Amino acid sequence: MIISKDKIQDLNQKGLAEQAESFGFLKLALDKKGVDAETIVQHLADFQVAIPSWALGAGGTRFGRFSAGGEPSTLEQKIEDIGLIHCLTQTAGAVSLHIPWDIPSDPEAIKQLADSHGIAFDAVNSNTFQNQADQTFSYKYGSLADRQQAVREQAIAHNQEVIRIGKALGSQSLTVWLADGASFPGQNNFRKSLQHTQRALQEIYSELPADWRMFIEYKPYEPYFYSTVIQDWGTSLLLAEGCGEKAFCLVDLGHHLPNTNIEQIVATLMMKGKLGGFHFNDSKYGDDDLTVGSIKPYQLFLIFNELVYGMNNNEANNPPLAWMIDASHNLKDPLEDLIQSLEAIQLAYAQALLVNTPALEEAQIQNDVVLGQELLQDAYRTDVRPLIREARLRRQGALDPIAAYRSFDVRNELVRERGLKTVATGL
Question: Keywords, A to Z (predicted)?
Fold first, then answer.
C-alpha cells in the first residue's frame, strides 16, 4: 500500500489553521525565554529512528501470539510497511534487519526498494539465541560464551556472515546481543564464559570494515535467570574496550533491573565516548517491550536531557548515535504502536532541547536543588506537540499520523492485500 503525498496534504488541510495558531503561540512563548523554536523544529525534522524489521507483525509472549492480520510475510513487505510509517511521520527513515529472519535474496533490489521509500539500512543484528534449521550445533547452553569451541566458532561465523550481508545493503554497524548465561549455580564458570565471549567478539571485530561499528548489548536476565554473561553496561564497556575503538555499548531501555538510573548510565558512557546507540521501549517490571513513553515518560525525558547535554559537550568525541525502536506488539496494531513510539521519542527529544542548561548548571553550582528541579520540569511540562507537528508538516508528513493511518484504513487495506492469517518473522 502506498499513500501519496497529495492525499496526506489534502488530509492536513483541515488542521492547518489550528496548527499555525498553536505553533505561533508556542513560538512566541519560547522567544520570551530566549529559545529559538525554528532551531528545535529543524532538529526534530532531521531526527530519524530506525524501525526493526521484526516489529512490524504482532509480537509474541510465552503464552500466545495474536496476528494483527495483513502482517508482512516478506522483507519487501516489511520495507513497504516502514515506508508507510515514514510517509506519515517523516521520522522512520531507516530499517534494522535481524539475520537470519530477514536475509535478502537480492540485496541490490532490496536497496532500491528501500531507497524508493526514503529508507536507509541501520545496524544489522545477529541471532545466536535461537537454533536455525541448517546449523550443526545447538545454542541451548550458549553461543559466543559456550564451553565448546565448535559452538563458539559457529556463532562467530554467523556474525561474520551478518557483516557481509549488511555490507551488501549499505549498513555500517553490527549489533550483538547474547542470551548466553546460566539458570543454576554451577552451570557455568563465570570467568571462562567472559573470556570466551571477549575472544569471540575480538574475532568478529577483526572482520569489521574500516567504516563500521560494533554495538554490544547487555541484559541482566532472561532467558537465563541466575547469571547473564553480558549482564550490565560495565561488562559491555569492558568488552567494547577489549575489542577496540570501533566497538561501543548499546543501551536497551528494557534491559535494566527495576529502578536503574538509566540516565546516569547514558551520561557515563558518553563521557567515555563509548555510547553507540539506543533501543527504545518502555517497561513496568522488566523487558516488557511496551510502547515508548507509555509507562515512564519522565524518565525518557531525563535520558534525553543527558543525551542532548552529551551531544553538546562531546569532549570524548562520542560518535553520532544509532536510534532504534525495539518493542513487541501483542495487543495493538503494530504499525500504530510504532507511530506512537516515534511520537514519544520526538516529545522527549523536543522537551530536552528546551532545558535551560546554563541556568541548570548555575543552580547546581549554587546547590539550589529546588531551582534545578523547576528548570527540568518547566521543560518537561511544556506542550511541545506543535513543534513536532510543524517538523512533520515541513517534511510533508501528516499532522496527526495516527488519525491519518485510520483515515486511510491502512490495516484493513493490508489485510485485503495480504490476507488475514499472514505471520511476520520475529519474536
Answer: Isomerase, Manganese, Metal-binding
Instruction: Tell me the pLDDT tens digit for each residue of 42-87.
Output: 999 999 999 999 999 988 766 778 888 999 999 999 999 999 999 9
Superfamily of the domain at 49-354 = Divalent-metal-dependent TIM barrel enzymes (3.20.20.150)
One-letter-per-residue 3-state SS of the chain: CCCCHHHHHHHHHHHHHHHHHHHHHHHHHHHHCCCCHHHHHHHHHHCCCEEEHHHCCCCECCCCECCCCCCCCCHHHHHHHHHHHHHHHCCCCEEECECCCCCCCCHHHHHHHHHHCCCEECCEECCCCCCCCCCCCCCCCCCCCCCCHHHHHHHHHHHHHHHHHHHHHCCCEEEECCCCEECCCCCCCHHHHHHHHHHHHHHHHCCCCCCCEEEEECCCCCCCCCEECCCCHHHHHHHHHHHCCCEEEEEECCCCCCCCCHHHHHHHHHHCCCEEEEEECECCCCCCCECCCCCCHHHHHHHHHHHHHHHHCCCCCCCCCEEEECCCCCCCCHHHHHHHHHHHHHHHHHHHHCCCHHHHHHHHHCCCHHHHHHHHHHHHCCCCHHHHHHHHHHCCCCCCHHHHHHHCCHHHHHHHHHCCCCCCCCC
